[in-house]
Amino acid sequence: MFNPERIITDRARAVNASGIRRVFDLAAKLKDPINLSIGQPDFDVPASIKEAAIDAIRNGFNRYTVTQGIPELREKVRTQIGRELTNWSGQTDGQDFGVLITSGVSGGLLLALLACAGPGDEVLIPDPYFVMYKHLVTLVGATPVFVDTYPDFQVTAQRIEPHVTGRTKMLLFNTPSNPTGVVATDQACR
Ligand SMILES: Cc1ncc(COP(=O)(O)O)c(C=O)c1O
User: Fold this and answer.
1) Hey, what domains does the chain have and what are their CATH numbers?
2) Residue 108 Cα: closest atom of ligand 1
3) Given strand 168-171, what is the order of strands in its sheet?
C-alpha cells in the first residue's frame, strides 16, 4: 500500500534544516536587512570571462566532455595547484588521482565522500565549517568529527592530531575558509 510518509528516506530526514535557512526566514521579516549570508560577489563577472563563455558557446563548445573533465583544463589546474602546494604531483604510484572537474564544489565533495567514506569511518571537519559539511558526511553514513580551530581559525597539525584515530578517513580542508575567510599559512599547517 502506498504510504506518503515513506517517500522521504531516513537518510534525508537525518539532515536537519540548515541554520542559514532559518536565519533567512527570520531576516525575511526584518525591514531593510543587510545580507551578509551567502557568498555572492559584490562585483560583476569580468567582461573577458563573459566573452570567453559566449565564444565557447558560439563555437559549439557546449556539450558533454569526458567525465573527468577536459584534459587541457585538468592540466592547467594541476599546474596551478602544483605551484601553490609543495610535494604534490597529482599522482599516486604512477596513477593519476589528482584532478577531477565537477560542476560546483558540492557535487565534487559528495563524490569524494561517497568514494572514500562510509559507515564506521570518521571525517575530520575543522570548526567553524561550511554549513553543508556535517550533513554530507552524515549522508554517506560516516561520522563527522569536529576540530576546534578557535581563536585564530588556523587548521594546524597540533589541532588535528588528537582527533586522528584508526577510523579517520578524510579531512575536509579548504582555504580560504568559509565562513572565517582565514587563509591557511604554510607555517600554521606544520
Ligand atoms: C567552503 C565551501 N564549500 C562548499 C561550497 C559549495 O560550493 P558549490 O556552490 O560550488 O557547490 C561553498 C560555497 O560557497 C563553500 O564556501
Assistant:
1) 45-101 (no CATH), 102-190 (3.40.640.10)
2) 11
3) 143-148, 122-127, 168-171
Reading the chain (190 residues) residue by residue, the pLDDT tens digits are 778 788 888 888 877 766 667 778 888 899 988 777 677 788 999 999 999 999 999 999 999 999 999 999 999 998 888 887 777 776 666 666 678 999 999 999 999 999 999 999 999 999 999 988 999 999 999 999 999 999 999 999 999 999 999 999 999 998 899 889 999 887 766 6
Strands, E, within 62-159: which ranges?
91-92, 95-96, 122-127, 143-148
Atom of ligand 1 at shortest range from CA of 177: 1
**Of 110, 123, 130, which is best to mutate to test ligand 1, by the most ligand atoms within 8 angstroms of its C-beta?**
130
Q: Which residues line ligand 1 (CB under 6 A)?
A: 39, 104-106, 130, 174, 178
